[in-house]
Amino acid sequence: VIPQRLFGKTVVITAGPTVEAIDPVRYLSNHSSGKMGFALARACVEAGAQVILIVGGKVALPTPLGVTRIDVLSAQEMLIAAEQCVAGTHAALQLEDEEHDHDHHHDHDHGDCDCGDEHLESLPTADNLVADIFIATAAVADYRTEEAAPQKIKKTQDAMSLSLVKNPDILATISHAHPELFVVGFAAETQDIEHYAQGKLIAKDLDMIACNDVSRADIGFASDDNAMQVFFAERYNQDSAILDKASKDNIAEQLAAMIGDTLLQ
Length: 265
Ligand code: C5P
Known about the structure:
Elements: E1 10-15, E2 20-23, E3 26-28, H1 35-46, E4 50-55, E5 67-71, H2 75-87, H3 91-100, E6 133-136, E7 143-145, E8 164-166, H4 170-177, E9 182-189, H5 193-203, E10 208-213, E11 225-232, E12 241-247, H6 248-264
Parallel strand pairs: 1-4, 1-6, 4-5, 6-9, 9-10
Antiparallel strand pairs: 2-3, 7-8, 10-11, 11-12
Catalytic activity: (R)-4'-phosphopantothenate + L-cysteine + CTP = N-[(R)-4-phosphopantothenoyl]-L-cysteine + CMP + diphosphate + H(+); N-[(R)-4-phosphopantothenoyl]-L-cysteine + H(+) = (R)-4'-phosphopantetheine + CO2
Family: In the N-terminal section; belongs to the HFCD (homo-oligomeric flavin containing Cys decarboxylase) superfamily. In the C-terminal section; belongs to the PPC synthetase family.
Cofactor: Mg(2+); FMN
């Protein structure tokens, strides 16, 4: 029996790569498999949580049982979905509500519409927050094309260049907008793990960060295994923890347990 450390908690997780359109048939992306995020979603459900998994790109992994899955493509779409999920205003959650609980009358304000870039400025406030925990495992593309071409780009020129602009930092945006959320980040580093982890913990105002050493060929990215070092925000007074190489499912179970224990402190 798995301890229900996350019972009654709502967890929003981002997973997979993001896909940034160049034109209607081409895109920029990365090799993220989404496995760590899916494993975490499963582990959080097993620990008793309600889980919403926001999946970027074109991840074909099966959705773990009991998880509400929302597919998006780009970083901008992922940010909007993350904000709406954390606030409980995402259309997919309203549908679920109605399916699960026909008899209840919902009198909270859903707004007129549930999607689109124009709603970024009307981001929800802390008052209507429904999530307790936000975990960012997604490998968000750092840059996107300034503008996707409306038509397929023709190969008429010998050389071409793309103009790229920086994507929003989803984790930092959510964390800064909602200080009461328990926020967990991931980091892939090749050196000075502790130094960079502590830097991100502070810069993105995280409660916890899990880092893996991507210079090792046997773990991370497409692999089924992972090994991690976990750091906590100073206020928890908690030493960093080392999770030895194990399956991503096993690592995810350990991380879910750590999140539950830290949250209860
Ligand atoms: O800064 P760096 O990309 O190394 O940070 C990694 C962490 O930040 C991961 O948890 C990742 O999911 C999150 N992230 C994000 N949005 C970005 C870049 C990173 O949510 N644009």
